[in-house]
Fold this sequence. Notes:
Layout: H1 4-14, H2 20-29, H3 33-45, H4 50-66, H5 70-79, H6 91-106, H7 110-123, H8 130-137
Amino acid sequence: xxxxxxxxxxxxxxxxxxxxxxxxxxxxxxxxxxxxxxxxxxxxxxxxxxxxxxxxxxxxxxxxxxxxxxxxxxxxxxxxxxxxxxxxxxxxxxxxxxxxxxxxxxxxxxxxxxxxxxxxxxxxxxxxxxxxxxxxxxxxxxxxxxxxxxxxxx
Length: 154
């Protein structure tokens, strides 16, 4: 709450959207999801650096998830390409994969969560708490093959 007046002044004086993700996160912490959405719309219109836009998108996804809209949070990130595999991931890619992995775990898709956390670990084994997250998911489960009863069954 104390940071917001300074961030608002910065935005008013400079016209910059560079601090919008921080402003969004402040409003998220204060339980103001509509303000987070409005700031994200301003951010998108301001043609920010990809890192800044990505951070704003992550804050918005977190806000939606906080409000119980896990599907909307996942869709926001997936539609923006957050789940795409890239050869040389930048820090923003790791952050997107991690947040998307968290959302997938929370929504019950443990296989997809594991896949995303494995990507993060492959790019940076020390990133965040990814090793703990993978350990908490346990080993991957294999799909059980059921015998084809129609072939040779009499």
